[in-house]
Amino acid sequence: MKNFFYFVFLIPAILLLFSFHKMEGSQNFEAENVRATLVYPQHAVLGEGSIWSDTDQVLYWIDIEGKKLFIYNPKTNCNQEFGLSDLPGTVVQRTNGELLIAIRNGITSFNPHTKEFKVMAHPNTVANNRYNDGKCDSQGRFWVSTMSLEQDNPPKASLFKIDRDFHSEKIFDGVRIGNGLVWSIDQKKFYYIDTPTLNIDEMDYNAAQGTVSNRRHCISFENRNFGFPDGMTIDSEGKLWIAHWEGGRVTRWCPITKKLLLTVTVPNVSRVTSCAFGDSDLQSLYITTARRDGEPDSGSLFKYRFTNGIKGNVAFKFQG
Fold first, then answer.
1. Residue among 137, 194, 230, 279 flagged as catalytic
2. Residue 279 marked in a binding site
3. Is 179 known to sit in a ligand binding site?
4. Is 230 an active-site residue?
5. Judging by DSSP bridges, how do beta strands 157-162 and 142-148 pair with one another?
6. pLDDT band (50, 70, 90) for residue 223
């Protein structure tokens, strides 16, 4: 009688529980792969440098090869553009409302209302280098990398820090294509991408002094069919988001477990360059791309809207 009870009641219950768990796992697996949608068909030659302004509620981004600055307003679906004197690498906002653009001929302050440009610093001294990716830290300093326009060996690019008084300091050199950089939520780690290495490096970070130390590999993309790591951002949970050049996607990683958590596919576009959380609740991931023949939507601006609690952080501004 006892064995009969187990067979009739417990076995079906176990099978039902297993079936539910399997179905739940299948749903989670599907949720880990989502598709971005086209929000603005700009067709930039080399779209890059996306950053959301919490004060202006717009997305700043650039076209490096097209020598343009863009200001995208999602409420009006308008993408205002400004011509630049030379190749820009990235853009950040200043606390005074102006922008700081890393243009090849100098770190330049720009007022979108008066259209006034002013070079404030120029730490790069290597003729065949240009500024590339960069962001501001929690203390209001601007960190920006350079990249070589030639295949230099040994590599000649560097990572620089621009202080609030516009004094510049080289953090380290030996860089080929300095790209994505972010700080951990607790401000104790610094993450950095030198694209050809196929690695995200992790360093210890001293926020008060603005220094890094103990550089080591965190996440490797070797032997993965993900293309090359390019731009990077971090969400409110401390997870890293990587844009993949020639990979057609943005991926989410845990820097502690080194595990891939989610993939945002950019449909029919291979050259994905940067990503930034935006909109009033920071629950939309904006994605920039670069032109490639045979890909009609390449160079456009894409977006994926999260409804599961994933969100970004307010971008730090330059306090100089």
1. 230
2. no
3. yes
4. yes
5. antiparallel
6. confident
pLDDT digit string, tens, across residues 141-152: 999 999 999 877
User: Predicted confidence band at 261 (pLDDT cuts at 50, 70, 90)?
Assistant: very high
Does this model's pTM top 0.85? yes
Nearest CA among 178, 190, 133, 170 for reference residue 152:
178
- Asked if 177 and 196 touch (Cβ cutoff 8 Å), the reply is yes
Say if residues 73 and 58 touch (Cβ distance below 8 Å).
yes
List the beta bridge partners of residue 272.
Answer: 289
- Rounded to whole angstroms, the Cα distance separating 66 from 283 reads 29
Is the pLDDT at 210 greater than 90? The verdict is yes
The pLDDT of residue 17 is above 90: no
From CA 198, how far away is CA 245, in angstroms rounded?
11
Please state, for a pLDDT cut of 90, what percent of the chain lies above it.
Answer: 87
Pick from 30, 42, 22: nearest CA to 269: 42
Q: Is 306 helix (H, G, I), strand (E, B) or coil?
A: coil
Residue 196 has a CB neighbour count (10 Å cut-off) of 15
Using CA atoms, how far apart are residues 103 and 81, in angstroms rounded to an integer?
Answer: 16
Query: Which two structure tokens, joined as six digits, stand for 112?
Result: 């979108």
Residue 102 sits at φ, ψ, to 5 deg, of -85, 90
Rounded to 5°, angle at Cα 238 from 32 and 216: 100
Which are the contacts of 113, defined by CB distance < 8 A and separation ≥ 6? none
- Does the annotation list 48 as a binding residue? yes
Reported as a pLDDT band with limits 50, 70 and 90, residue 153 is confident
Q: 75 Cβ partners below 8 Å, 6+ apart?
A: 57
* Token duo for residue 4: 């009969």
| Nearest CA among 277, 271, 180, 176 for reference residue 231 | 180
Judge contact between 246 and 271, C-beta under 8 A. Answer: yes
Q: 292 labelled as ligand-binding?
A: no
